Amino acid sequence: MSKASKFALARSRSIDHQLDEDRERRQKEVQLLILGGAGSGKSTFIKQIQLNYGDGFPESERLKFRTQVYENVVESIHVLLDCMKSFNLTFKQEGIQKKVQEFQLKYPRLNLKALFDEIPDDDNFSNDTERVMKMESRLIRDYYIDKLDSGLILPIWNDEAIQTCFTRRKEYAGISMAYEHYLSSMKRICDQYYVPTIKDILFIRRPTLGVKEYSFTVNSFLFRFVDVAGQKSQRKKWIHLFEGVTAIFFFVSLSGYDETLDEDETLNSLQDSLQTFHQVTHNPYLERTDCILFLNKYDLFEQKIKKTNLNTCFPEYSGSPNTEMGVEFIRECFRKNSLGHRHLYTHIMCAIDVEKMRNVLRTVIDTVMDLNMRRGSMLA
Ligand SMILES: Nc1nc2c(ncn2[C@@H]2O[C@H](COP(=O)(O)OP(=O)(O)O)[C@@H](O)[C@H]2O)c(=O)[nH]1
Ligand SMILES: [Mg+2]
């Protein structure tokens, strides 16, 4: 063999080898796109993955969430004060009004909604990440709370009027159970050496701006999770992320059946979710992509269903106010809206429950590995 042909052969072998390596790497890579309405639990789910398959939130990581907890505490007081106004209540204790004024001056309200309005609606997706990053750094600069004053917050939270607002929270949209978790731990959270606990981190409510990617290695497979913003205006960007996706994880807030969207109060949250699910599963780009449905916030649904009938959302629902029947009905609605010939994997869950989520995640990972293997053999 001439020198030139030896060289050509070696080169061809090296290319083959490279191709094999690329194929193997691709087969060991799983792309997962997490979709669903705002507040359905997408980012919380990622945190659970991080907890179980990532670095598990060592202290240095947990410290990074401190400002977000502070933001949530401040926001919760603002919401409770708004609620008080709408209920026409007045403070029971003397001197609280002064504390409120001081609070409002020291911790003005964070206007995340305004920030969202600044995210372009257009299809110019390529510039988006950079713009969103700039906005986030501005948000942090504009609204950085380096510590909280429990002497200001605790008396407000403890006042009878504010407590009444919390007890009557079902009558006022937006008051979450997390408020109690944070506000009853004020001493701990206001401590100068405060390090957020896992529970504090899972309770954080903070809309995802733009698109975020997270990678985890599980059983020597690389799982790439893409987390997105769920607001209506942001959904048209989802399509840019559809290519090469192994599976779509679609999140639904079960407790949204008697809620409306923050961004459009004329739309029922669960109905909107159902419609979005239909659009996603029927999108031609995703015809061959599997979908795993996560019916989340089961804990809140369980509490709600005793008081509010499911037929507020689905007039055709004639079942009793029973949790299992209700969830089954909702699951069936989603199944009817999925592509008929494909199996719809479903998980009914509570994304803030660390113990139960461990099992859910294990099953999900197994399913995804199966799907990936099947896809691999289909594409080979
Ligand atoms: N009670 C309850 N709260 C949840 C559950 N899942 C998420 N949350 C809370 O709902 C809020 C929104 O969750 P998030 O993951 O940010 O939603 P995203 O907008 O879809 O990313 C956060 O404050 C979470 O702590 C759940 O199953 N039960
Ligand atoms: Mg999010």
Q: What CATH first level of the largest domain would be assigned?
A: Alpha Beta
- Please give the alpha-carbon distance between the first and last residues: 34 Å
Quaternary organisation of the protein chains: single chain
CATH topology of the largest domain, which one? Rossmann fold
In this entry the ligands are: guanosine-5'-diphosphate, magnesium ion
User: What Rg is obtained from the alpha carbons, in whole angstroms?
Assistant: 24 Å
Q: Give the DSSP E fraction (strand runs of 2 or more residues).
A: 5-15%
Strand order of the largest sheet: 2-3-1-4-5-6
Order of helices and strands: HEHHHHHHHHHHHEEEHEHHEH
Number of domains: 2
> What is the β-strand count?
6
What is the average of the pLDDT values?
89
Helix content: 40-55%
Which spans have pLDDT < 50 for at least 5 consecutive residues? none
User: Largest beta sheet, briefly?
Assistant: 6 strands, mixed
Could you describe the 3D structure shown?
The protein has helices at about 5-25, 40-55, 60-65, 65-85, 95-105, 110-120, 130-140, 150-160, 160-165, 175-185, 185-190, 200-205, 270-280, 300-305, 325-335, 355-380; strands spanning about 30-35, 210-220, 220-230, 245-255, 290-295, 345-350. The protein has about 375 residues and is of the alpha/beta class. The longest helix is centred in the C-terminal third of the chain and has 26 residues, at about 355-380. The protein folds into two domains: about 35-60 and about 210-365, 3-Layer(aba) Sandwich (Rossmann fold), CATH 3.40.50.300; about 60-205, Orthogonal Bundle (GI Alpha 1, domain 2-like). About 50% of the residues lie in helices and about 10% in strands. The protein has a six-stranded mixed β-sheet, sandwiched between helices. The radius of gyration is 24 Å and the shape is globular. Magnesium ion binds next to helix 2.
